[in-house]
Design a protein that fits this description.
homodimer; 527 residues; alpha/beta; Aldehyde Dehydrogenase, Chain A, domain 1; Aldehyde Dehydrogenase, Chain A, domain 2; five-stranded mixed beta sheet; globular
Chain lengths: 527, 527
C-alpha cells in the first residue's frame, strides 16, 4: 500500500522518503492499514524553505488575516467531528464519548476560536511607544515554528490543531507540524482541514505543512536550523532534552512540556476531616484517561498516622476496584512498567496493581506504591521517576519537618495541590509547605486535583524544569501562550510610514499599548 | 596586603579563598594596589543559602518594599558620585567626564529609580483573573539571581548596580553579584552602598551579596544550581556560552548579552545624497568609548560604485585622524588584535589602522577593513568575527542581489541600521533588505547609528543568538526587562485570603490586570 502523502509547500505530495511506518490499534494490539512516510532531510529542508518564504510574505500582515484562518479552520473541524473522533478512537483507544467527541474536540476548536480572538485583541504584543525618544517596539512573529505533538491528546495538543499550533499561528507564524507516530491518521485529517482553510483564506503555500516522522538526527537538525524560529514540543523527557540540547546550542527558543509527577499534599487536618472525599477525588483523578495526563497526580505526600494509613488503604481499594483503561500503545506500557520497577527498586512497596494487564488491549493495572519519607530522602531522584499512567507513589513522612525536607528535594512540576482543613488547623503548616512548594510548581491548587487543565486566560500549563524548559511561559492559556512564538522587535527612528500598523500614531487596530509610560488604546496625540 | 572582603549573608567578611587577584590601570599598564579574593565553592554555596532564605522571607512582599530599597540606593549612588567616578576612571580608563560622571552614572541611578517606579506600577506581572474558573495567575519573582557584569560599563551594567541588577530587584529577587575582574573596586563601592540601603530599608541579610571572582568550574556550578532562579550575564561569547550550556542542561533561565557586530547598511541613494554625513556619523559611532560598546557598528554593507569608494576612503581618513582611546585592559587588546587578524586571514584588507598602539596605555589603532561581497560569501562565519573595539569591516557587494545574499548569511545582532535616500529612490531596495534583516536584529534603525542605548520603555537591547540567548527579551527598557527575572505562578482554587495582594478581588495596588478577558485596574466586582 502506498504511503500517505506529506503536505509541503501547499501541495499534498508523495514523500521522498523510502521508509514507512504504521499506526497501531491499542485495543487489538494490531497494526492499522495505512502506511506513513519517514521524511528524509531533503524534504524537511524544502519545508523550511517554503515556511521561510511564507514568513516573509506574511511580514506585517494584520492579525485579522490569521484570525480569519483560525476561525475558518475551527468551523471545518466542528463540521468534521465524526471522522476525527472515529480516527482518533481507532488510533488511541481513547473513548469516543465523552472524552474525544464531547470534551477534547470542542476544546480544540474552541481554542482555535479563542486564539483568533486574542490575535485580534493584540495586547500580547505589548506594543510600546516612546514619542520623545522616537523608539517603538512590540512582540512580532518569531518565524517558522516546528510543532512536535504528544501521544496523549490527539486533538487538543495535536501538532496541526492543538495549543502550540493555535498559539504559533495567532502570533503570525507558519507551522511545520510533526505528527505523533501514534495517531498519524488523525493528524492527516487535521492537516487536510487546515490546508483547505488556508487556501480559502488566502494564506501562502508554506503556511501549514505536515510531516509524519523524521529520524532522531534529522529532528535535532531541524530544531537547530537557522531558518527555524522556534520549537514547540510536548512529549517524553528523553526525546525532548535531545531537541533542547540542539536548539539551546544555537540559542533557538524551544518550549517543552516534558515530565511532571504533580505532587498532591494531604495535610493532617484535611485527612482527619474528609478522608473519604480525598480518596475518591484522588482515585478518580489518577485513573482519568488511563492516567495518561500531563497533570496526572503521581505523588502523594502525607504525614504518618492512623488516619493516613486508612486513607492510603482506601485509595488502594478504590484503584483496585476501578476499571483499567487501555493505554495509547506498547511504548507507553513499556515505560510505565519500567517506571514502576524503578520505584520498587528504590524501596517503594506495592499497595495496589503493579503488573501489566487488567483490562482490554494494551493495559496496566491501576497502581499505588508506598514509601517512607526517610527512604524517599535516600533516593529522591529515582523516586521522582515518572511512571506515566495510572500509577502513583505515596510518601509518608514521619512528621512535618520530614515532609518539608521531602518538598525541598522535589524537582519542578506543572502542578502542586495542597489539601488542608477548613477549620484553619493546618494553616501554619500550609504556609511552611507552600513557601517551599510554590517556586517549584507552575500551578498551585487548593483542595482539588490537578487533572483538568481549563482553557482559561489565567491558566498556567507550565512550570520549572523538567516540567518545561522555562518557568516563565505557559502552553495553555491565551493570550499568554502566544508570547512564546514571538520575538521583541524595536524600531528606532524608523520612518513613520515604514512602521507596522500597531506601532503607528493612529491606533487603527485598537490595541492596548504603552504610550509614553501610560497604557492606552487611544491614538498617539499629535504634538 | 589583605584581600578585600566579600559580602555574604549581610556581613562583609574575609573570603575563605586563598587565591587573590588585582585590578589594572589601563593607562599605566600597571597593577593597582588592592587584592581581591577568588571565592571558593563553599563560599558561593553559603551565598546561595542566604539568598534562598531571603527569597522565601520576601515571598509575597509588596512591590513597595523593593521600590523603597531601589530609591534609597539610587540616592546613595548620587551622593557618592565623586568616589565612584574616581575609582572607575582608575580601573577602566574611561574618561571621568563627560562619560562616567555626566552620562553613565546618572543613567545608572536614574535606571534604579525607574525600576522602582515600574516595580510599583506592576503591569509587567500580567496579573490575570478568571472568576468563573476560579483561576488567577501572575509573574512572580524567580528566586535568587546571579548577575555577571561586563567590563565595558562599570556603572550602567555593573553586577551590583546596573540594568540586570535593577530588573532582578524590581521583580522581587535577591541578587548575588559577581563583579567583573577589571573593576572590582567600583563594584565594591556599589555593594557597600547597596548594603547600607538594604539595611536601612529592612531587607533580609541575603538580599544583596557580592563575590569578585570564581573559578570557571564554580561559575558553571553556580549557573546550574537548583537554588538559583536565573542568571543575567553580559560579556564574552566564550565564557557566556559555557554558562549557558550549564544552565540550559537543567532548564535554568539564563539571559545573555554576548556578541554583536551591528550591521550598518548604506543604500546607494543615501550614499549619493549625503556621503560626508554618513562618514562622519559612522566614524564618531565607531570610536565612541574606544569602540567598546555592545552596539558598536562593526560591519558596513554597501553596493559597489564610485560613490561607495569615496565614502569608504572618507571613513578611513576620519578614523585615522580621530584620537585613539585607551582600552579597558590587556585582554581586550589581545582579543581585538586576534579578531582583526581573523578578518585579514579571511580576505579582509586594511584601509586604516590594523595595529596596536596609537594612544595612551593599552590601545589599538582605529581600524577599517574591506572585503568584496563574494569574498564575504566564501567565509561568512569567519568574517562575522567580533573585533571588540574601534574596528569595522566594510563589505562591498557588487549589486543589490549580492547585498541581499550577504544579509541572508548574517547571524543575530542587537541592532541593524539602514540608511536610505530621503527622496524614496531606495524604497524598493529598503523593503528587500528589511525583509531579510528584520528578524535578525533586535533593534532596527533608520538613518542613525546604533551606539547610544536610550533608557526607554520601548528600547530593545536584545536580539537573536549570538547577540543574546533568547530573542524575546531585552536587557534595557522597563518594564520589559523585569520579566526576565520572573516565573509564571498560577493559583487554581486557592482560598482568597491566601492569594497574593495583586490577585485579590480588591485591587489595593491599582495594578493593571486582565480580569475575565478585559484589562482593568478596578476591583473584581462582587457577584
Amino acid at each position: 500500500m502506498a504511503a500517505q502523502r506529506v503536505l509541503i509547500g501547499g501541495e499534498w505530495q508523495d514523500s521522498q522518503g523510502t521508509k514507512t511506518f504504521t499506526a497501531f490499534d491499542p485495543k487489538t494490539r494490531t497494526a492499522l492499514d495505512e502506511n506513513y512516510p519517514v521524511s528524509p532531510w531533503s524534504e524537511i529542508e524544502t519545508a523550511l524553505q517554503h515556511a521561510t518564504a511564507a514568513s516573509r510574505m506574511m511580514r506585517n500582515w494584520p492579525a485579522e488575516r490569521f484570525a480569519a484562518f483560525l476561525e475558518n479552520y475551527a468551523a471545518r473541524i466542528e463540521a468534521h467531528s465524526a471522522d476525527l473522533v472515529a480516527m482518533a478512537n481507532r488510533e488511541t483507544a481513547l473513548p469516543a464519548a465523552p472524552r474525544l467527541k464531547d470534551v477534547e474536540l470542542p476544546r480544540t476548536f474552541n481554542q482555535l476560536k479563542l486564539a483568533a480572538q486574542w490575535a485580534r485583541e493584540g495586547s500580547w504584543k505589548t506594543a510600546t511607544i516612546d514619542t520623545a525618544a522616537g523608539i517603538r517596539s512590540q512582540l512580532e512573529p518569531i518565524g517558522p515554528v516546528a510543532v512536535f505533538g504528544p501521544n496523549n491528546f490527539p486533538f487538543a495538543f495535536n501538532s496541526a490543531a492543538g495549543g502550540d499550533f493555535a498559539a504559533a499561528v495567532a502570533a503570525g507564524n507558519p507551522v511545520i507540524a510533526k505528527g505523533h507516530s501514534s495517531h498519524p491518521g488523525t493528524t492527516r485529517l487535521f492537516a487536510e482541514l487546515a490546508h483547505a482553510a488556508a487556501q480559502e483564506t488566502g494564506m501562502p503555500p508554506g503556511f501549514i505543512q505536515l510531516i509524519y516522522r523524521t529520524s532522531h538526527a534529522d529532528g535535532t537538525k531541524l530544531a537547530a536550523h537557522p531558518q527555524l524560529g522556534a520549537i514547540g514540543y510536548t512529549g517524553s523527557r528523553s526525546a525532548g532534552t535531545q531537541l533542547k540540547t540542539a536548539a539551546d546550542a544555537v540559542g533557538k527558543p524551544i518550549y517543552l512540556e516534558l515530565s511532571s509527577i504533580n505532587p498532591v499534599i494531604f495535610l493532617p487536618g484535611a485527612v482527619a476531616q474528609r478522608s473519604a472525599e480525598l480518596a475518591e477525588q484522588f482515585a478518580s483523578s489518577s485513573t482519568m484517561g488511563a492516567g495518561q495526563m500531563c497533570t496526572n497526580p503521581g505523588l502523594i505526600l502525607t504525614i504518618a498516622g492512623e488516619a493516613t494509613e486508612k486513607l492510603v488503604e482506601d485509595i488502594a481499594a478504590r484503584l483496585t476496584a476501578a476499571p483499567v483503561g487501555t493505554l495509547l500503545g506498547e511504548g507507553v506500557l513499556d515505560n510505565l512498567s519500567k517506571g514502576v520497577q524503578t520505584l520498587i527498586q528504590h524501596g517503594a512497596q506495592v499497595m495496589a496493581g503493579g503488573q501489566p494487564g487488567g483490562g482490554t488491549g494494551v493495559c496496566y493495572q491501576n497502581t499505588l506504591l508506598w514509601v517512607a519519607g526517610r527512604d524517599f530522602l535516600a533516593a529522591p531522584e529515582a523516586l521522582q521517576t515518572e511512571a506515566f499512567g495510572a500509577a502513583s507513589l505515596v510518601v509518608v513522612a514521619q512528621d512535618a519537618g520530614e515532609l518539608v525536607q521531602v518538598l525541598e528535594h522535589l524537582e519542578g512540576n506543572l502542578t502542586g495541590c495542597v489539601y488542608s482543613a477548613t477549620d484553619g488547623s493546618d494553616d501554619v503548616l500550609y504556609d511552611r509547605v507552600v513557601t517551599v512548594l510554590r517556586p517549584k510548581v507552575g500551578r498551585l491548587l487548593n483542595d482539588k486535583m490537578p487533572t483538568g487543565v481549563a482553557v482559561s486566560s489565567a491558566m498556567n500549563h507550565g512550570g520549572p524544569f523538567p516540567a518545561t524548559g522555562h518557568p516563565g511561559f505557559t502552553a495553555v492559556g491565551l493570550p499568554a501562550a502566544i508570547k512564546r512564538f514571538a520575538r521583541l522587535a524595536c524600531y528606532d527612528g524608523v520612518r513613520p510610514a515604514r512602521l507596522p500598523a500597531t506601532l503607528q500614531d493612529k491606533n487603527t487596530t485598537g490595541t492596548l499599548r504603552l504610550v509614553d509610560g501610560k497604557w492606552a488604546t487611544a491614538d498617539v496625540a499629535a504634538k
